[in-house]
Structure formats: C-alpha cells, structure tokens
Fold:
Amino acid sequence: MPMQDIPEVRAFILHWGEMGSEWGVNRSVAQIHALLYLSDRPRHAQEICEALGLARSNVSNGLKELQSYQIVRRVHVDGDRRDHFVADTDLWDMLMKIAAERKRREIDPTIQLLGELSESLAQRDDVAPHVRERIERMHDFIGNLSNWYADVRRLPKSTLITLMKLGGKVARLLPGGGKSGT
Structure:
C-alpha cells in the first residue's frame, strides 16, 4: 500500500497543509514537505505529483521554496537521471532553519525600515511626539528580540532542548523568581 493511502498519513499531510496556510506558507508547499518528511526514501517530482494530486508546476515551485528554507534537499539516486528530494527529519534543525529564514525574510527588513523611519522622524518637528516614540519603541523592541534570537541561536542544541523542557521553571533562576510584575 502506498504510504499516502494510509489514512493517518493522509490526515497528517492534509493537516500540515492547513497549518502551512495558517503560518503563511502555501498549502501545497506544506503538503509536499509533509510527504517528504514521512517518506523513508528520496522521491522524484513526478512521484510527489501523483501522491498529492498536484500539478507539476506546483510541485516544482514548492520544492524550490522548501529548498530555499533548507529543509528539503535534492539528492541523486544511482541509475536514475531524475532529481530526487528528501526532507530534513531532525526537528530541531528544521525549526532553526525555518526560524532563520523567516527572520531573514520578515524581521530583518522590518528592523531596517523602523530604523530608517526613526531616523527620519528624529529630524522632523511637525510629527506628534507619540508617533515618533511608538515607532522608536517598536524598533527597539523588535531589535531586542532579534538580538535575543541571535544569542539563543548560538547556544548548543543540547542546551536549547534543556531550556525548552524546563519551560517556565527557568524563571526561578532569575532575580525575583520570575514573579509577574502585574
């Protein structure tokens, strides 16, 4: 029985596609990723088309998108001239690659624009002070998040996993015991 005919596999692929849409990723791109993630062997584009009922152009574009995130890579299979594809199955690696690419595409341009807007507004006296202050605060806030992300990204994988498992318990190690200031 082909893997995609297993009801639970089909449910996973469909759900991953729906979640992809919620995360701002094209549904078919997410479904291609789900199929490759669950696959025990490299798959060529035509197999992916047939398994998911997608047009060849959708699969080609989807594979390019997934490769740009570095969570799918092209491999060659002996005796077959076609390109085959495999997904990264290390979940932590996959998360870090997706986060890095989303940061590059979404956060970095926002920080740059907010910095430019702050500089421009600093030269103007015809703008309400609250507008200038809020844009500067947003720039500082997103900049600090970006710096925190860079610091966290440098930690060893084992440390990151331990921190994730600790969750909110890590707050007990901070001054004040992590008590809310509200």
